Amino acid sequence: MRRIIPAGDHPTALVTGTSSGFGLLISLELAKRGFKVAAGMRRPQAADKLMEAAELAGVAGNISVIEMDITNENQVLAAVEEAKKLFGTIDVLVNNAGGVWGGFAEEVPLNLWREQMETNFIGNVSVTRAVLPLMRTQGRGKIIQMSSISGLIGFPGFGPYAASKFALEGFSECLALEVKPYGIDVVLVEPGSYGTDIWEKGFAAMQAPPHSPYLSMLESVLAYARRSASASGNPQEVADLVGDIACSRRPRFRYMLPRSTVWTARGRKWLPDSLFRIVLMSALKRKA
Q1: Where are the alpha helices (DSSP H) in 139-272?
Q2: Cα(52)–Cα(157) distance, rounded to whole angstroms?
Q3: Strand residue runs (E) in 86-159
Q4: Residue 225: other Cβ atoms inside 10 A
Q5: How many CA atoms, within 13 angstroms, populate the side-chain half-sphere of residue 200?
Q6: Residues 6+ positions from 70 with CB-CB distance below 8 Å
Q7: Cβ distance 135 to 85 under 8 Å?
Q8: Which domains, ranges and CATH numbers included, belong to the chain?
């Protein structure tokens, strides 16, 4: 059943990375459910797609675009202060902004490893730290962390991305225990591969040098990722789930979708490591 906010209530949400993909869909979904949404994006001039969709949905009045590069601490603090001035409260934080740097460990330059961690992990910590004093004073709040199946399972060629999401998972487990006494819930959302813009911007752009010893494995990894993305369904499913979590009184700590991702994670948990790796590598080598 689709959860909605009761008429007359006006909860607020700050969503990061809202110019496209999950962030755009989540902002729209929360606005449709009655939230006032501060839509953070690194380049506000890219807001046209979001606001055009909001106009069509009749919720443009519920969305305010704010400039927010999560790797710039001063800008993060200013954006949170702006959201506070706009709404007075921040009831829900959706840490969605991030990027993808793929490739094989031997071949990915160290500066890209650092950039991946700075964006997907340190940026998340920065936004969370900026919002926590307000939520703690309010005595309530939800922090929804957009993680990934790659935060639970490492795939070849996904090393930088998986490392950042594993870090996010560990941080969130600690954070959940620290803030629960103050009425703040921390929730992890772990999607599998969906056909969002992150595919074109990240995984599809993975390359290996022409004479790389990993070239054949890269081709298998990319083919597997394409199959997974095309079979995973509509990204709106993720936005719907985040909307349900935002409206829930007692959310769980961890949510995973689609069903195929749930079964992959269960296999990782139940099977011996050696057997799971055989199954995984067999799936990567499958042609169709």
Answers
A1: 159-179, 197-201, 215-231, 236-247, 259-270
A2: 36
A3: 92-95, 141-146
A4: 21
A5: 5
A6: 16, 17, 40, 42, 76, 97, 119, 123, 124, 126, 127
A7: no
A8: 12-285 (3.40.50.720)
The sheet that has 36-41: what strands, in order across it?
63-67, 36-41, 12-15, 92-95, 141-146, 184-191, 254-257
58-88 pLDDT, tens digit per residue, is: 999 999 999 999 999 999 999 999 999 999 9
161 is catalytic: yes
Report the alpha-carbon distance of residue 220 to residue 104 in Å, rounded: 13
Q: What are phi and psi of 29, to 5 degrees?
A: -65, -45
- 270, two tokens: 């139940």
pLDDT tens-digit readout, 89-131:
999 999 999 998 888 999 999 999 999 999 999 999 999 999 9
pLDDT in tens, 264-277: 888 888 999 999 89
For residues 99 and 7, the model is more confident at: 99
pLDDT at residue 268, as a whole number: 85
Q: Residues 161, 194, 224, 255: which is the catalytic one?
A: 161
Residue 201 has pLDDT above 70, yes or no: no
The candidate with the shortest Cα–Cα distance to 238, out of 21, 1, 58, is 21
What is the per-residue pLDDT for 202?
A: 62
CA distances from 190 to 145, 198, 255, 259, 262 (A): 9, 15, 6, 11, 9
Count the helix, strand and coil residues of the chain and give each as a percent rounded to the nearest 5. 55, 15, 30
pTM of the model: 0.91
Q: Give the span between the Cα atoms of 82 and 252, in whole angstroms.
A: 30
Residue 7 has pLDDT above 50, yes or no: no
DSSP conformational letter for 91: -
